[in-house]
Amino acid sequence: MIHLGFPAALVALLAGIGVYGVLARRNAVLVLIGVELILNAANLLLVTAGSRPGAPFAAGPVLTLFVITIAAAEITVALAIILVLFRRSGSIDLTAVPDLSDDEDVPAGESVQPATERTPAREGAP
Amino acid sequence: MTTRDIVFVAVGAVTALSALLSVTTKHVVHAALWLLVSLGSLAGAYLVLGQELVGLVQLLVYVGAIVVLVLFALMLTRAPIGPHAEIDTPGWQRVVGAVLGAATTVLLASLLLPLFFGARADLDTAESLTPQVAQAIFGTWVWPFELLSVLLLVALIGAFAVSRLVLTREEAPTVRAATRPSTSADATQPAGERA
């Protein structure tokens, strides 16, 4: 016998902590940690709702397993994107101003040549 | 308060505290390690709720794979060792985040607690729930289950393609730097700054 109020309270706590983690972090990997906490709150809610008497098709635990699988797929792609971001810009700070130009990987000492190439295009743009 | 209630409150307190530490710590690597503690004790919470299959899958996938992947990502992005203030947003933004997180907690609690207040589950039976779950997966849910295997394959190929795509694009500046030997000495400077 277990009272389902305690798991429900833990769901609310975990989701709130996850929202804080997403909003308070600048490091992209640490933002993903907040996302994981929110996903785990959803999983716990599914398990809690599924352990009520009379839940059909064992939907709670089965959907929890599905969400765990989707979370694994999500974090694989997200970490691949973060690694690409790190290789292109040298940091994974989400508040940094992004440099979206194509010559991003040219080191600073070499930027004389692309800068002169780019200047006429910038004047011509407006 | 039954025995399961007491055990769940203990495990849930560990889960919530370590989750809170993982979003507030200043050490980058400690955040991933506290996430490991939080997800592991959440697997314990699933065990207390009588879903041992979900708890073991949580241990295998989350603790065994996802946290290790996060640790690898932190290593590959040269995470600083030791306390580091640069991983957090400015103070006012953290205050707003705390307010919004507390608002989410209050909203969900006010919604869920009345819903689950009187509810109780009788889990102290002799038979396990796992055969029931297995029959449901390979009976009712078999098509979503098969679709998920395709999703995992697509995610694998997608992650590979994302890293591959930019690798080929990076070759062009490297070739151009090699053709101009006068700038090769300067080229090491920004890499040193990144480290």
What is the CATH homologous superfamily assignment of the largest domain in chain B? NADH-ubiquinone/plastoquinone oxidoreductase chain 6, subunit NuoJ
Terminal Cα span of chain A: 71 Å
**SSE pattern of chain B:** HHHHEHHH
Structural class of chain B: mainly alpha
Mean pLDDT over the full residue set of chain B: 85
Uncertain parts of chain A: 108-126
Strand portion of chain B, in percent?
under 5%
Number of helices of chain A: 4
Largest sheet of chain A: none
Sheet having the most strands of chain B? none
- Oligomeric status of the shown chains? heterodimer
Supply the CATH class of chain A: Mainly Alpha
Sequence of secondary-structure elements of chain A:
EHHHH
- Measured as a percent range, the helix fraction of chain B is over 70%
How far apart are the termini of chain B? 54 Å
CATH topology heading of the largest domain in chain B? Four Helix Bundle (Hemerythrin (Met), subunit A)
In CATH's first tier, which class of the largest domain in chain B applies? Answer: Mainly Alpha
User: How many structurally independent domains of chain A?
Assistant: 1
Q: Total number of helical segments of chain B?
A: 7
Shape of chain B: globular
Rg of chain A computed from alpha carbons, rounded to a whole number of angstroms? 23 Å
